[in-house]
Amino acid sequence: MLPVALISLAYSSLIWISQKIFDPPTPAIQASSTTLVFELRQQHAVTSEGAILFNDVSRTQQALNFGQETHAIPTRRVQRARPLSPEVFQQARARSRLFKENVAIDWEEDEIVAPDAEKRETLLALAKMTNNAYLEPGEAGWYELEKQWNVSYPFGWEPDEDGFRGHVFATRDNSTVILAIKGTSMGFLGGGGPTTSKDKFNDNLLFSCCCARIDWTWTTVCDCYRSGWQCDQDCLERSMMDESLFYGIGTNLYNNITYMYPESNIWITGHSLGGALASLLGVSFGAPAIAFESPGDKLASTRLHLPQPPATHEHITHVYHTADPIAMGTCNGILSSCALAGYALESRCHLGRSIVYDTVSNLSWSVDIRKHGIVSVIDNILNASWAPSEEIGREVPSAVIEEDCVECFSWEFGDFPLALNNHNTSSSGLGRGGCGSG
């Protein structure tokens, strides 16, 4: 049994509900099914040191707390490419970073069952899962997905715990497992909490052009800025090895899940920072990922030296709308809402494919950081029956690949040794921002 302090960190995973207790046996869901049914399974915890622990919930507790209803999510089959082994993938990353070599690796291409992102029902269910990752059960704003979601277990809500948070869900036959990752808790959006500091650190390291260097008054998250608009590339890449970076914690968690469910198909979802992490993990492991309102993640994938397969990541889907300046990559510059709150969210280019709701044209929304929240997406977009006029008959807009996307065009990246520059003397270009469409 985990200590109470670790139980409070526990990620709510799906708890297996005994068929003998609740209902007669039913046929297992096959991988070719058009819908999958998910239920709570077990708890897993991430300590403040990054260690991952797992704990099953007792059958008695299951019987007392959970009903027998299930929640179905439509699926479809997609092509994906994944590395032949984690070792090959990590070796390619290391050679790319250390020797600046683009190592060609062999990819395994196959067809897998993924969430059907063309159905509003799918996106709505996954969006509610990502929303609940921010909250304790019963807290204001909690979405009740159905009876089996009415009772959950808090994780990471102790005042002194500030780490990676999320929920895990699974089908009864373990054919599919979903990892839902919490995004940034921003105090200025009414959130906050113990994860705020590390959330901001990850945001400013992953999504800024150069260590969150907005102007000379900012405290940067790494020491890679030089003078003018120069940034040391090797320094940036070394900074991505920081032990506080959630990507590394996420890879450890994913590996633990695959150890527990070696035959399962794993999906990943998340909102904002959680969505970007879902996408990066999806690229790393070939897992289907649905990311909501994520900042651009392509820049981070490059700096993390994630090998790219020859084909587009069809299994990675970003979902966002045009009134969200964070997902659109326009919440930058010294006077932007993000910068005023201390966030350097400057990236704009997304991996995989993007489903973009044009809320500015079709709903007359103004661009506003308050539209970034997942609740706004759930209540005003996914719960609404509307679609772009040119796509009448579709449940969601068509997914597109973001081509000709340019970011951080103001910056020069290269070999700029610290000893040759005074990185705090220049404030040239104040307010220019860090990225744009070029």
From TrEMBL:
Question: What is the name of the protein in this document?
Answer: Alpha/beta-hydrolase
